[in-house]
Design a protein that fits this description.
CATH topology of the largest domain in chain B: Heat Shock Protein 90
Order of helices and strands of chain A: HEEEHEHEHHHEHEHH
CATH class of chain A: Alpha Beta
Largest sheet of chain A: 7 strands, mixed
CATH topology of chain A: Rossmann fold
Number of helices of chain B: 10
Strand order of the largest sheet of chain A: 1-3-2-4-5-6-7
CATH architecture of the largest domain in chain B: 2-Layer Sandwich
Order of helices and strands of chain B: HEEHHHEEEHHEHEEHEEHHEE
Helix content of chain A: 25-40%
Strand content of chain A: 15-25%
Oligomer: heterodimer
Shape of chain A: globular
Number of helices of chain A: 9
Chain lengths: ~260, ~375
C-alpha cells in the first residue's frame, strides 16, 4: 500500500513550492475545495485524507498507531517524503494544525511555514488554561457519538443523495462525506479532544501564521492568543469569519490571509 | 383576515419549529411553535446562534459535521439534533435547513425547520442498543464456541489416550484366559473362563470403537487397508461363533459368496460384529438373529436382522450418530457407548458402500452394501 493511496493524496497546480492542506476532525479534503484551487497557479497543491476519513484506506487504520496525534504526524511526514517536499507550506485546519506542528518537529526541512486554522493545543480546561471544554463535556461528546452516528447514518443518507442546489459538487463529494467509519471517527474524536500538545508549541521553528475566527466554539480567540504566545515569532490574524470552518464559510478571507503570509 | 396576518399565523403556529438565521448565523426570526417547545421568548432567542440551543457535545458535532455540509451543499435534511429547553431538558428534533446565497456565493440567510423526533429517537436508540446487545451476544457465543471446541478436542484426545492404554491390559487378560482354559478346570471354572473371555472380547470391541471414533474426529479419519479376500465367509463365521458363544444364542447364517471381494477383512469383521452385537441386545430373545452375505449384481451385500419391537421412526434418523443409545428390547438402557452403529456406518463409507436400516413389526434389518472390487 503506497502512502499516496493510503491517504488518497491528490496533487495539482504548478509551482516550485508546494502547499499542503490538511483537514480536521469530521471532514475530509473536500473542506479545502474553495481554498486550495486559488493556489494552483503559484504552488503545487497537495491534498489528502487522514486514515479513516474520506477516501483513505480504512484497512490501514491501526488503533495503536493512531492512538495519538503522532501517528497522524508520521503519515504526514511519509507523504512529504513520498513527494520529496522541502521547505513547503503546511496549512492545517483544527486538529490538523497540531498534526502539522508535530510533523514539522519530526522533519524540520519539510515545512518552512505553518498556517494553523483554528488551532487548539488542548481542548480540555486545565489549571491556568482554558481549553473551552470540561472533561465531562468531552466524555459526553464521545458517548454521544454512538447516538450521533445513528442520527448521521439515518439522517444523512437522504440529504446527500441529491445535490440539486449545487450540482457541481456532484456525487463525488456526497460519497466521500458518507465515508466515515463510526468506530474510527470515535477513536479520532477521542484522540483529538483529549490531546495536549502545549509543550510542543515552544519547539516549533517554522514560520507560523495562526488564523483565528471570531465566535469559534471549538477554539476560542483566547486559545489563538495562547498559541501565538507560545510559538516563537508566530503571527495571529483574527478573521471576520465566525464559526470553526472559515475555509468553508469565508474562503476568500482565508485565501487572502494565507497569500499575504506566503 | 388579510394575507399578511394569514402568513404570519401560518409561520407562527406551524406544526414545526422554524428559525431564520442572518448572514452571520444569528437568529433573526423564531416562530411561536418553537418558542413554546423551548419555553423561551424572543428576547432570549434573537441574536443567538443555532449552536446556543444545542448541548456542548451537539455543538461540536454540528460544527464539525453539519455546518460544513450545509455550507458545501447549501442544505441538509433530516439531521438529528437535541435542542435544550429553558429547564435544561432536551428535545430531540430532526432539522432541515436551506441557505439563500447571493450572486457571489455569500450566504445571506439560513432557514431551519425543526420537527419533534422524541419517539423516533427513542426507537433509534433502542434499535442501536439492540444492535449492540446482538453484537455482544454474538461475541459471547463465539467465545463459548471456541471454548467448547477446545473442550471437545481435549476430550477426544483424552479418550484416544485412554483407549490406547486400555488395550494392553485387556490383551493381557485375554492371554491369561487362553492359558487358563488349557488347564484342568472344573466345569464351573470352565464356565467362568468362557464368560470372562466373552467379556474381554466385548471390551476389546468397545475400545476399538472408541479409538476409531476419536481418530475420525481428530482428523486422521477411519483407516482401512483393502486386499483381495478369497473367502470372506471364514471371517464371518468366526465372528458369528464368537458372538454366539458369548451370548449363548443361535445365529442363523446364510452365506453365498462365490467370488473374491476386495475389502479390509478386519474392518468387515468389526462391522458385522457390531451389527450382530446390536441385534442380540436389541432384538427379542425368543426371535432368531440372522446373518446373510451374498452377491447381488455388482454388490457385496451383508445383512443382519432380528425380530422384536420395531425401531421408532423418530430415532431411526439418529441411529448412526455417535453416542446415540436406544433402549434395548426390555426397555433397559444399553450398556455400550452408543458407538457401534456409528463405527459400522463409517466402515461402510470407507469401503465406498452404505449401511442402511429398515424396521417393521416383523423384523429389523441392517444392510451393508458395497461395490465388489471397486477401489472406492
Amino acid at each position: 500500500m503506497s502512502v499516496i493511496r493510503r491517504n488518497n493524496v491528490v496533487v495539482s497546480g504548478h509551482g516550485e513550492k508546494a502547499i499542503v492542506f490538511s483537514h480536521g476532525f469530521g471532514c475530509d479534503q473536500n473542506m479545502w475545495r474553495f481554498v486550495a484551487p486559488e493556489f494552483e497557479t503559484r504552488f503545487q497543491t497537495v491534498l489528502f485524507d487522514h486514515v479513516g476519513a474520506g477516501k483513505s484506506d480504512l484497512g490501514a487504520y491501526d488503533p495503536e498507531k493512531y492512538g495519538d496525534l503522532h501517528g497522524y504526524a508520521e503519515d504526514l511526514v511519509e507523504i512529504g517524503e513520498a513527494l520529496g517536499l522541502k521547505q513547503a507550506v503546511f496549512v492545517g485546519h483544527s486538529v490538523s494544525a497540531m498534526i502539522g506542528a508535530l510533523a514539522s518537529l519530526k522533519a524540520p526541512d519539510m515545512f518552512e511555514a505553518l498556517v494553523m486554522v483554528g488551532p487548539s493545543p488542548r481542548y480540555i480546561d486545565d489549571i491556568g488554561y482554558k481549553g473551552g471544554f470540561s472533561p465531562a463535556d468531552i466524555e459526553e461528546l464521545l458517548a454521544s457519538l454512538a447516538d450521533n452516528h445513528m442520527g448521521w447514518s439515518i439522517a444523512m443518507a437522504p440529504a446527500i443523495m441529491g445535490n440539486s442546489d449545487r450540482p457541481e459538487l456532484g456525487q463525488e463529494l456526497a460519497d466521500s462525506f458518507c465515508r466515515t467509519d463510526p468506530a474510527i471517527a470515535k477513536a479520532f474524536a477521542r484522540v483529538t479532544f483529549t490531546s495536549d500538545n502545549r509543550a510542543d508549541l515552544p519547539r516549533v521553528t517554522a514560520r507560523t501564521l495562526i488564523l483565528q475566527c471570531k465566535d469559534d466554539i471549538i477554539a476560542s480567540e483566547a486559545i489563538g492568543e495562547y498559541v501565538r504566545d507560545h510559538i516563537p515569532g508566530s503571527r495571529l490574524v483574527v478573521l471576520d469569519a465566525t464559526g470553526h470552518c472559515p475555509n468553508l464559510s469565508a474562503p476568500r478571507e482565508v485565501v487572502a490571509a494565507i497569500q499575504d503570509f506566503v | 383576515m388579510d394575507h399578511d396576518t394569514d402568513f404570519r399565523d401560518l409561520f407562527d403556529n406551524a406544526p414545526c419549529g422554524y428559525l431564520v438565521l442572518n448572514d452571520k448565523g444569528r437568529i433573526v426570526l423564531v416562530n411561536e411553535t418553537l418558542r413554546i417547545w423551548l419555553d423561551l421568548v424572543d428576547d432570549e432567542l434573537l441574536g443567538k446562534r443555532l449552536l446556543d440551543l444545542l448541548p456542548v457535545a451537539g455543538r461540536v458535532f454540528y460544527e464539525t459535521h453539519f455546518a460544513p455540509l450545509l455550507r458545501m451543499q447549501g442544505f441538509f435534511h433530516e439531521v438529528a439534533l437535541d435542542v435544550v429547553r429553558r429547564d435544561g431538558t432536551r428535545l430531540p428534533v430532526l432539522a432541515n435547513a436551506t441557505q439563500r446565497v447571493d450572486a457571489d456565493g455569500e450566504v445571506k440567510e439560513t432557514r431551519i425547520a425543526l420537527f419533534q423526533a422524541t419517539s423516533r429517537r427513542k426507537y433509534e436508540r433502542e434499535l442501536f442498543e439492540a444492535n449492540e446487545a446482538g453484537d455482544q451476544a454474538r461475541k459471547e457465543i463465539e467465545t463459548l464456541n471456541k471454548a467448547l471446541t477446545e473442550t471437545g478436542r481435549l476430550r477426544d484426545e483424552f479418550i484416544a489416550i485412554l483407549g490406547h492404554d486400555l488395550r494392553n491390559p485387556v490383551a493381557a487378560i485375554g492371554g491369561g484366559m487362553r492359558i487358563l482354559s488349557k488347564e484342568d478346570l472344573s466345569s464351573r471354572g470352565q464356565q467362568v473362563v468362557r464368560l470372562i473371555d466373552g467379556s474381554v472380547a466385548r471390551m476389546g470391541r468397545l475400545i476399538d470403537d472408541v479409538l476409531d471414533l476419536t481418530r475420525g474426529r481428530m482428523g486422521g479419519g477411519l483407516t482401512i487397508s483393502r486386499k483381495v479376500e478369497e473367502d470372506l465367509s471364514l471371517h464371518l463365521k468366526q465372528v458369528v461363533a464368537e458372538l454366539s458363544t458369548g451370548s449363548g444364542r443361535r445365529i442363523d447364517v446364510e452365506i453365498d459368496l462365490p467370488e473374491p471381494v476386495l475389502v479390509d477383512a478386519g474392518r468387515i469383521d468389526q462391522l458385522v460384529s457390531n451389527l450382530l452385537g446390536n441385534a442380540l441386545s436389541h432384538g427379542a430373545e425368543d426371535k432368531p438373529v440372522g446373518l446373510s452375505a451374498r452377491v447381488a449384481g455388482h454388490d457385496l451385500v451383508i445383512s443382519v436382522s432380528n425380530g422384536g419391537d420395531p425401531i421408532p421412526p423418530e430415532t431411526i434418523g439418529r441411529l448412526f450418530q455417535p453416542f446415540f443409545r436406544g433402549g434395548d428390547a426390555a426397555g433397559r438402557h444399553e450398556q455400550g457407548l452408543g458407538l457401534g452403529l456409528h463405527i459400522a456406518s463409517e466402515i461402510a463409507k470407507a469401503h465406498g458402500g452404505t449401511l442402511s436400516v429398515s424396521s417393521s413389526a416383523e423384523k429389523t434389518t441392517f444392510e451393508f452394501r458395497m461395490p465388489i472390487g471397486a477401489e472406492n
